[in-house]
Amino acid sequence: MKQLLFLLAFLPTLLFSQTTMEPVTFRLDLNDVIDNVPNSDSAQVFIQTNIGNWVDIPMEDVGGNNIWRKNINISYPTGQNIDVFYRFKITSFGNNGLPYTLWEGGNVDTTCLFDPSTQGLAQGDIRQILFPPTSSIGISTQLPIFVCINTCAESELGTLSITSFRSSLNVTGSIVV
Hints:
Shape: elongated
Largest sheet: 5 strands, antiparallel
Order of helices and strands: HEEEEEEEE
Distance between the termini: 50 Å
Strand content: 25-35%
Structural class: mainly beta
Number of helices: 1
């Protein structure tokens, strides 16, 4: 009897709390800053997200062109949007042999960057997207995010225009992020 009552109590939760998972490709263009990174040939690039508990997630420079990428699966309640915060970190060793870390932010265009203390972090400005994105006609879209470090300008790189950060997307229509 207790098992039946337990099952009946949690059955609505099991039936109605569905989540959806979608992949997002984050791309980071470092061509404007890579020459400022000591020993850049051995640099490592990471993305950190609030959905990943702000741990270092290694990115890859697949084409050897200083455009780093990482696919991340984002889970969200079906039919709802969530705020996804993320930031980038570049590490290397300085010419003196000591660790070197470059965070996005500082004396640059910060109109799309948020103070890390808003997420309980000490360093590295953060960016935000509303996920999942929807087009102007209300359909969900795939979202590859293309960001140039320390740049918030609107991009003309893709078929979709994004305001508040530089992005290139493989979909058509308008999207509000």
